[in-house]
Structure formats: C-alpha cells, structure tokens
C-alpha cells in the first residue's frame, strides 16, 4: 500500500487522532471505472487467511486524523472522480458518515469497501454512498471458516440484503466480490455461491485471486477454479470481473 501516512503529531490542535491508517492518493482499481483516492480505516475483527491488508487489522494502525486526510483529498479535487473508504473495515469507524458527508462537500463521489461486518452501520449510510464493494466471503455455510469468527455469516448476508435495498432505492451501485481460497472453497461451492447471489438479485460480481501473507497467489489461475466456474459466473451476472492477484 503506497499510501500517505501522517502521524498523530501532525494533526491540527484539538482534532484528535481518528482510526485512519493512510491514503492512496490515486487508484484506478478500488472503484471499477473510476479514478479515486482510497482512505484506509484501521481495524478489523475478522481474520481471513488471504487478507491483503493484514497490517490494518489492529486499531493501533491508525495514525492519520480526518482533517489531515481531508486536506489531501482537497488538493486532488478536479483530478479524482471520488474517494473510497476501505480498510481494515471502514464501517468500524463511528465517524464514517461524517467523513463521507465532508468528502461529498468537496465534490467527490463516495465509494465504500466493506465485508458487511456491521450491517446496521451500513444501513445508516443510506443516501451517502454512491458505490459499494461488498466482500462476499463464501457460499452459504462456508463464511465463518473464511473469517475465523463464529456468527460472521449471518452478518454478511444481512449486509447484502441491506445493500440490495440501497440499490433498489436508486441511491447506490453494488459490486459483490469474492476472494478465492482453494483451502476453504471448491468449484462446486463457487457454483452454489453464484446461484445464491443471482437468486438475491445481484447483477455485478467479481472473483479475485487470493494471496498469501507474502503476497504470492494461493493457486495457479490457469488450473483453478476452472473455465466452467468462470463461464457460470459470466452467464449469471450482467457484469462480471475476474481479477488476478
């Protein structure tokens, strides 16, 4: 993560140090089709084995306050299409709605990366978010094994229902993304997941090649999950993306 990090000492007097870990000033991959800045929120209670931002799992990774982050964004107004709040888990921050409103006042569209860990906090962002990238961890029955936390599955599916309601109300676009880990998934479970998402009304989906703690791909994409899985996902969704590590 080539981000701008400003230490607590650099925060304006009285601003306080909020749980931000840094900013990627320009990204073309965090919001498909948009050039954005990405703000990283520190902290995540889940422990997915393929996490590519594992250094942000602890709240202590927060070194940047919002006024400093906003100043970085303000310098890029006119060059960016928007800002994506990512993590960690962005909805962990109780100030998230305020940050989004502030960024929108700068003229930036608002994107969100979330794993759906806090469904009601996601619901509270209705009307503030233009695009949601929701991590769908696995097929029904397999989510807790990915996150390492019992009860994760119910939260994730509830968050999906909330996100779909936000789409139906015309306030947000949604992409469901699944990171692939052959240690916990099979081709059959991926077919099942595609069918489950389609049945719920998902129209935009993506599969992403998982990486290990050293950043190496977890599998040979030429061998797994196989063309039959990719064709199935391509057939079921209006827009489908396959993303290599």
UniProtKB/TrEMBL annotation:
It is an enzyme of class 1 (oxidoreductase). Its cofactor is [4Fe-4S] cluster. Residues 40-165 form the Radical SAM core domain. Keywords: Iron, Iron-sulfur, Metal-binding, Oxidoreductase, S-adenosyl-L-methionine. GO terms for molecular function: [formate-C-acetyltransferase]-activating enzyme activity; iron-sulfur cluster binding; metal ion binding. Its EC number is 1.97.1.4. Pfam families: Radical_SAM (PF04055). This is Ribonucleotide reductase of class III, activating protein.
